[in-house]
Design goal:
Length: 376
């Protein structure tokens, strides 16, 4: 029987609103040939495409003890995925491709590859072993090393991850497969008035950006009589911002595409918040590339980064000269940069032009061939 299926394993599927889900959805819609792949991952949506097999994660419904429940239920997940693989037909599977920001599917992918002697490709969106500590780091380091050695092709999401893993595993070539987007160019340029500014933040607020986000919100309300709108699925953290005026700090939630674009047009300055401190490792903070930045680049709005000095995302801003960077928790430095945005039209025009140019790095056209290699 012809081996004509690539088995793709991903923690997040195309219905997810996180960075991995959004990126995967963009690529699959444009480059996923029907009947040439099967995609398996976590989702409660059982009505996805026929090429997609959704595994229910029952632990995600728990308010407490979720991590422990995931650990206890993991063997059942492994058995369920293996059962689905047998339904697909072992002989039909050409290779296994795993997308990592989740160790569960990374290990399952390795297991399938090992048991059934299938080629294995991996695509790291984040660090794995380097974002663990203690006894977890001991086991994660062993597992990661074994998987990297077994891997046929090792894809990474960013230049920072490439530098990191090229140094860590010099025997294994890494291939950059960037985020892929097809974001419309928004024509409306901001009319910047310091007495009525409206700032925008998109995406999930989590351990990678909570500290920076909460700090910049506090600073902005101390400096300006402004509004800040937060777009994305953030219901679980709204209570952390109760002290702010609900008329000025507005949680828009997750919006359908047209509604989202119409509201983004009314934003004056887009904020990208990252790090400073939190529960992730220093290596993870240093190498993260926030997915939300990519559509920002085509929104025709000034972009201000609030991120600790020394991180890759800061270097990316400086190298491509498309935004403003505040790399200290310094209210005066923040105000100075916002003044520059509002008062220097020539500089603003230059940076907006550079943003559109930088966006091309992440266009589907620029990265589609590499994704096709990953899934074929």
């Amino acid at each position: 029987m012809k081996r004509d299926i690539t088995l793709i394993l991903s923690w997040r599927l195309i219905d997810s609103q996180c960075g991995t889900g959004v990126t995967l959805n963009n690529y699959i819609k444009n480059y996923g040939k029907k009947n040439s792949y099967k995609l398996i991952g976590d989702s409660h949506n059982q009505n996805l495409d026929t090429n997609i097999i959704a595994i229910k994660d029952h632990s995600s419904q728990l308010k407490k003890g979720r991590r422990f429940a995931r650990f206890l239920l993991y063997p059942l997940k492994v058995l369920r995925v293996l059962a689905e693989v047998r339904k697909i037909g072992i002989k039909k599977i050409r290779k296994v491709s795993v997308i990592y920001p989740n160790y569960e599917y990374l290990f399952i992918g390795y297991l399938i590859s090992f048991i059934y002697k299938k080629p294995l490709d991996i695509w790291f969106h984040n660090t794995y072993a380097d974002n663990t500590s203690g006894i977890n780091n001991f086991f994660a380091s062993k597992i990661e090393s074994i998987i990297v050695k077994k891997t046929n092709k090792f894809y990474v999401l960013t230049d920072a991850l490439k530098d990191h893993y090229d140094h860590k595993y010099p025997f294994k070539e890494t291939i950059i497969l960037r985020h892929g987007f097809n974001t419309p160019l928004l024509a409306d340029k901001s009319d910047l008035k310091k007495d009525s500014l409206c700032f925008g933040i998109t995406g999930t607020i989590n351990a990678s950006n909570f500290d920076a986000t909460s700090t910049i919100i506090e600073f902005l309300f101390e400096i300006y009589d402004c509004k800040i709108k937060i777009f994305g699925k953030n219901e679980n953290i709204v209570s952390n911002f109760k002290k702010f005026d609900k008329e000025k700090l507005i949680f828009e939630g997750f919006l359908e595409e047209n509604d989202f674009y119409s509201k983004i047009k009314k934003i004056d300055i887009l904020l990208l918040c990252h790090g400073f401190q939190g529960t992730l490792s220093e290596v993870e903070y240093r190498t993260i590339f926030p997915t939300r930045l990519v559509p920002y680049l085509n929104f025709n709005k000034p972009i201000l980064l609030f991120s600790k000095k020394g991180f890759y995302i800061n270097k990316f801003f400086h190298d491509n000269n498309f935004g403003w960077v505040v790399d200290e928790k310094d209210k005066q430095l923040l105000e100075k940069n916002i003044n520059d945005i509002c008062n220097s039209e020539n500089q603003l025009d230059e940076k907006l032009k550079n943003a559109k140019k930088t966006y091309q790095l992440f266009s589907l056209d620029s990265n589609g061939k590499i994704f096709r290699d990953f899934v074929s």
